[in-house]
Every structure is written in C-alpha cells, then in structure tokens.
Amino acid sequence: MIYKNRRKKNGVPAKLIAVPLPQPNSLEKYTPYGDKLVLVSSNILQKGDQSVLNLVWTAVEPLAEDYVVSARLLAEDDSWQLRHDKQPGLGAIPTLKWVNAYVPILDPHPFQELPSPPGHFDITVYEPFRMTPLISPYGTVVSYTLP
Is the dihedral of CA 125, 130, 131, 136 positive or negative? Predict the structure, then answer.
C-alpha cells in the first residue's frame, strides 16, 4: 500500500488515503546493477532441445557504456554447469542503444541442456574491456533459484 497525506487548498490536512499495489508474482524481480540497470523479471522456457533463460532488463537512464550479461547455470551442489556471456538481446540490443529509460529489454540466454537436478543461476553484468562488474546490493554476482 502507498499512503498519501493530501492537503486541501487552505493548508488543512485531508484524510489519509491508501492506494493498493498489485502483488508481485514469483518471476518478478527488482535487482539494480550499479545505478544503471535493473533486472525486472526472469523465466526459463523450453524451446525444442534448448532451454532459454529469459531476462528482462530496464535502464534507469540512457546508457553511455557497453555491458555484457553473464548467465551461469549451476547444479544443486553449486558446481558450474553452463555459461552464456553476451550483450543483451543475443548481441542485437547492446546497452549503448538503450537511450530510453524504463523500457523493458528482453535478453534471452539459450542453453543446450539444464543441469540435472536444476539448482540456480548466477547473473553478472560487466564492462567487457576493463572487465569491471556492476555491483548490485547483493554483490557482483546475484543468484536466483531455478523455477
């Protein structure tokens, strides 16, 4: 709920009103990476013999840097199974083209097969020339449990 105190024109406080907010579903996220990018959702889809980890990003301002997203799939025992590093949109939508803030950008990461049993995936965003990662509130590598 968002609560607002509204004031009347004469400066006398009005009643406190409440605005209900929708409940997020389990796939929605809000994980900032630095002060530049935000991961807003993720899901895994099966397409033929491939599994695709779909990440949805948004920028909080137009970006002047080029970033790479690294998606790493790990097994339950945290052993590293698969990795996919690429500019967003399979290289078709580099972050340098993100000139509008808060526009969702789909970033698919295809994998031939998921670890068995599935564990979680780690997401890192880094600048490829200096290899400097964007830091989230959770550190340089953020882990999510596979659905």
Answer: negative
Strands 132-133 and 118-127: antiparallel
Q: Is residue 123 packed enough to be buried (19+ CB in 10 Å), middle (13-18) or exposed (0-12)?
A: buried
> Which pLDDT value is given to residue 31?
86
Q: At 130, is the secondary structure helix, strand, or coil?
A: coil
What's the pLDDT tens digit per position in 52-87?
889 999 998 898 889 999 998 887 777 788 888 999
**Helix/strand/coil for 96:** helix
**Using one digit for the tens of pLDDT, what is the confidence trace for 87-134?**
999 889 999 888 888 899 999 999 887 666 667 888 889 999 988 888
Give CA–CA dist 58/93, Å, rounded: 12
Residue 69 burial by CB count (10 A; 0-12/13-18/19+): exposed, middle or buried? Answer: buried
